[in-house]
Structure formats: C-alpha cells, structure tokens
Amino acid sequence: MTIREMRTRLGDTQSQFAARYHIPFRTIQNWETDMRRPPVYMVELLESRVRSDLANRKTMVLPKYDIQKSELPKRSDFVGAVSWLKAVQEYVGESFVFALDEALMCQGSFRGRSEEYLVWGYGDDSASRFNGVVLLGNQVSAYNIEEKNGLRYTDFNRTVADALANEAILDMQGITEALSRYYYSNGASFNGIFVIPEYQERFEKLADDAIDYYES
C-alpha cells in the first residue's frame, strides 16, 4: 500500500494519520505528493501497523444476547477473578488475550463485578460463538501482551489505550479504579503511562476522575 492508501483505508485525515503514528504532518504531505519518498523500511513498518489497526477496529456496539450462542462460565460461580478467567480461557482457547476489565483482573488492579457478563479480548472470530465475548480485534502485538497465572492479557498501557478507544461502549469504572490504584501506588504520579496524542485530552479527564476516585 502507498502512504495515501494506508491513510484513506483508516479513514484518517493527513493530520490524524500523522498524530496516530507520531510522524510530522509536513512529512506525510511530502510523501503523499511525491515531494519525498519514505524509506522502504518505514513503508513496511507503517503497513504492518495499519493492517493491525484495521483488523482491530471491530467493536462499535456491544453484542446482544443470542440464544443460539454457547454460554461461558458465570462470574458469580467463582470465588476469585483468576479462577473465573481460567475457566473462561478453557472455553475460548489458550490463544485468547484478555483485554480491558479482564486484563485489569489479570493484573490484580481491578476485582471485577460479581455479575460480570462481558468478556473483552483479542482472538479468533470463533470466540464470538459465546455470549458475552466482545472482540476488540483478531490480533494484538506481542509487545503488548503479558502472561501471569497461565493467562494472557494486554499490558497496562495497551489496556488504557483500549479503554479510551472504546469509551463510548465501556463501563469506565474498572479503568478508573485501576488508574487510581496506579496513581497512589506510584508516588501520586501517572509516569510510565503513554497515551497517543489523539487520546491525550480524554486521558487527562480520566486521570482527574481517577485521582478523585478514592477521595470521593
């Protein structure tokens, strides 16, 4: 794909594309008008990132209950979050990567809810055969995956990014609580959390809510 094809497939303006991948706006303009040619390695790297982003821009609405789909283990039937997630993993498969609230449970920064129904993650489309599974995409970079207790899940930075990307359909309690824990256990600081420019303003609002979470 050319730079222009990558950008248009994402539906980005030149400025949005530049911000998404931390490339100067003028550079994008020069590449698209053939004023300059991007290095081959840069085109290959960008195309890989774009294909991943296209594959992972799937969830726009929450799935509705379907009587023809299979059921996952109920959260209320398990004492701890980890034991429930392990049971869920046995159903959806070991390659499934937990995301959002479930990733926070794996990390130990959110206890979850006793009546948890939704399970967020990355994996094969076959995972959608279960009620409650919300696929954010088919794949996520190995650099953003952590493993603990036999469970695979997105790291904290990717979890924050996914929360901001899906804020319109996500109950933000889990990420707010997790950010609050991070802030107070990190010397009253959010250092170490990296947010892309397009989400910076929304993150600042979320950060304020997180600071107030345990104080309110």
What order do the strands of the largest sheet run in, or round the barrel if closed? Answer: 1-2-3
The number of E-state strands comes to 5
Task: Report strand %.
Answer: 5-15%
Shape: globular
What does this structure look like?
This protein has 216 residues and is mainly alpha-helical. 44% of the residues lie in helices and 9% in strands. The chain is built from 9 helices and 5 strands; from the N terminus they run H-H-H-H-H-E-H-E-E-E-E-H-H-H. The protein has a 3-stranded mixed beta sheet. A hairpin with a 2-residue loop joins strand 4 and strand 5 (151-154). The longest helix has 16 residues, at 40-55. The model has no long low-confidence stretch (mean pLDDT 88).
Fold topology:
Elements: H1 3-10, H2 14-20, H3 25-32, H4 40-55, H5 81-92, E1 97-98, H6 100-107, E2 119-122, E3 133-137, E4 145-148, E5 151-154, H7 156-165, H8 173-185, H9 200-213
Entry summary:
The protein contains nine helices and five strands; from the N terminus they run H-H-H-H-H-E-H-E-E-E-E-H-H-H. The chain is mostly helical and 216 residues long.
